[in-house]
Design goal:
Elements (H helix, E strand, L loop, with lengths): L19 E6 L6 E5 L7 H14 L11 E7 L7 E8 L7 E2 L5 H13 L11 E6 L5 E9 L4 E8 L10 E2 L4 E4 L1 E7 L8 H4 L5 H18 L9 E9 L2 E8 L2 E2 L5 H11 L5 H5 L9 E5 L4 E8 L8 E16 L8
Parallel strand pairs: 2-3, 4-6, 11-12, 13-15
Antiparallel strand pairs: 1-2, 1-17, 3-4, 4-5, 6-7, 7-8, 8-17, 9-10, 10-11, 12-13, 13-14, 15-16, 16-17
């Protein structure tokens, strides 16, 4: 085995104004607005005030429609990580409504791409690994660069479970919700009258959408979370073959065009635990261990995972999803640091 040399990836010092840029991960509902976290307040209330001011400037900055996914990135204060990242979900109902309670893997990869484009990270090269600490929920993600060019970057995202993470601890509310990367309510499609891939992906299906949103809000109430927030996420799942599932999920404001990266991670983690909806539908007894094929409305996604077993006391080690392509879209003049 050949030893691998990892090059440190350190963010450069911020300018007084801070940078702002747009980047997009393929499969995401839209672009991500990436902001220099060091040029923004650290206090949550003051941060929301600053983000509201920036949001109101966006129409004059030439952004392509409403941008609901935001990412704040800065050098990490922790010696094990290269960057600290905070995801911000801008909610469509009000300019000052933001949900900071979860993660977004697509926006993380977009943030790394934009930071490199802005010169805050060294130019990305195949083989680079950028270690990110997610401040929203403590996730630890290694963003591995598989391909890099001026036009686009392809990543594998490795979500590393902290040592001692028992599969049973991922469950919330008696097992109704699985929390890995983001909390998800996975619903057996048959319960909703949807039994196969074709039926799941057929058109807009407003009744199915309304039912899933109702289940999501009911689950949020059970957890004591805001009904008009972004979490928990919800997705309908149907079996395709052993080790192969089809999934259709909601995002803020509509159907997700694909599946959130965190959704693929959470689905794989849930599949590893005996008795969950995904594990049962997966026909796990006959499926190849550690690999999950996921059909989404747009494309197929493959997740790999490692666990010491499939019981609640067994440990989850990691979940990885590859083939995630990003593109930097350029700088945006929104006056970061001028608040």
């Amino acid at each position: 085995m050949t030893a691998t040399t990892l090059t440190p990836t350190l963010l450069t010092a911020p300018t007084s104004a801070g940078f702002a840029a747009l980047a997009r991960a393929m499969g995401a509902p839209g672009p991500t607005l990436v902001l220099d976290a060091d040029s923004l307040p650290h206090d949550r209330e003051e941060l929301v005030t600053a983000l509201t001011r920036i949001r109101r400037r966006l129409p004059d900055a030439g952004t392509p429609g409403e941008v609901l996914k935001w990412a704040l990135i800065a050098p990490s204060a922790h010696p094990l990580f290269d960057v600290d990242y905070r995801f911000v979900q801008a909610m469509p109902d009000a300019d000052d409504h933001f949900d900071l309670n979860g993660n977004c893997g697509h926006s993380l990869l977009a943030a790394v791409t934009a930071a490199a484009q802005a010169g805050r990270l060294p130019a990305l090269r195949a083989g680079d690994r950028i270690r990110a600490r997610v401040l929203n929920n403590g996730d630890q993600v290694v963003c591995q660069v598989d391909h890099a060019s001026p036009r686009h970057t392809v990543f594998t995202a490795h979500f590393i479970a902290p040592p001692g993470t028992r599969l049973g601890t991922l469950l919330r509310d008696g097992g109704r919700v699985v929390r890995m990367a983001n909390p998800y309510l996975f619903v057996d499609g048959a319960r909703l009258g949807v039994r196969d891939r074709e039926a799941l992906f057929r058109g807009e299906q407003p009744d199915l959408y309304a039912t899933l949103e109702r289940l999501r809000r009911r689950q949020a109430a059970r957890l004591g979370w805001p009904l008009n927030g972004a979490f928990p996420k919800v997705a309908a799942v149907v079996p395709v073959a052993p080790g192969h599932l089809a999934v259709r999920a909601l995002t803020v404001g509509g159907w997700h065009p694909e599946l959130a990266l965190t959704g693929a991670v959470c689905l794989a983690a849930a599949s590893a635990l005996r008795g969950t909806v995904p594990n049962r539908l997966l026909a796990a007894d006959t499926a190849a261990p550690g690999r999950l094929v996921i059909d989404t409305p747009a494309r197929q996604v493959v997740a790999s995972y490692a666990a010491t077993g499939d019981g609640p006391d067994d440990e989850l080690l990691w979940v990885s999803v590859g083939g995630k392509e990003t593109q930097a879209l350029g700088a945006v003049a929104v006056g970061v640091g001028d608040e």
